[in-house]
Amino acid sequence: MTLSLEDITANNYEAVCDLEVTKTQEEYVACNMWSLVEAHYNSGYTCKAN
């Protein structure tokens, strides 16, 4: 299996925000929308998706 990570851009951010985790993962993983907001306002953060 090959895995590649790509930059999140204006062309794909909505698809990333639509991704969900399972109920059992919710307490451990922030939603993608929140992670994108954090990355925007904190220097040194990078977001990528597959």
Q: Any chance you could write out the topology, listing elements then pairs?
A:
Elements: E1 6-7, H1 13-18, H2 32-41, E2 48-49
Antiparallel strand pairs: 1-2
For the termini, the CA-CA separation is 13 Å
Number of helical elements: 2
**How would you spell out the order of helices and strands?**
EHHE
Level of helix content?
Answer: 25-40%
Widest sheet: strand ordering: 1-2
Question: Strand-residue fraction?
Answer: 5-15%
Low-confidence stretches: none
What does the radius of gyration come to? 12 Å
Q: What is the 3D shape?
A: globular
Given the helix and strand composition, which structural class is it?
alpha+beta
Tell me about the biggest sheet? Answer: 2 strands, antiparallel
- Can you count the beta strands? 2
Mean pLDDT: 93
3D structure, described in words:
There is one protein chain. This protein is of the alpha+beta class. It has helices at residues 13-18, 32-41; strands at 6-7, 48-49. The protein has a two-stranded antiparallel ribbon.
Describe what is shown at a glance:
The chain has two helices and two strands. It is of the alpha+beta class and 50 residues long. The longest helix is centred in the C-terminal third of the chain and has 10 residues, at 32-41.
Which features characterize this protein?
globular, two-stranded antiparallel ribbon, 2 strands, 32% helix
